[in-house]
Amino acid sequence: MEVDDGSRATPPLDAVAAAFKSQVMELQDLVLARSMFPATALPDLANVDALVTAMESQVETISRRLQEELDAIPKAKV
């Protein structure tokens, strides 16, 4: 029962990984647009900064979720 409570604390790893992949693709699009249209580079940099900040948060969430999965392995064997 407590395992379910822990699962609710963070989203499933698949969901977090999918969100991160989506953000990587968005970042690639922003970088491509920036190199194609240099006149709009300054506003695009703000978007890139916001996206990278969001991605950092996703990496922390992935790390926490992986640690939870790792911590659960010995408990399942007992």
From TrEMBL:
GO terms for biological process: cell division; chromosome segregation. InterPro entries: SKA1 (IPR009829). GO terms for molecular function: microtubule binding. This is Spindle and kinetochore-associated protein 1. The lineage of its organism: Eukaryota, Viridiplantae, Streptophyta, Embryophyta, Tracheophyta.
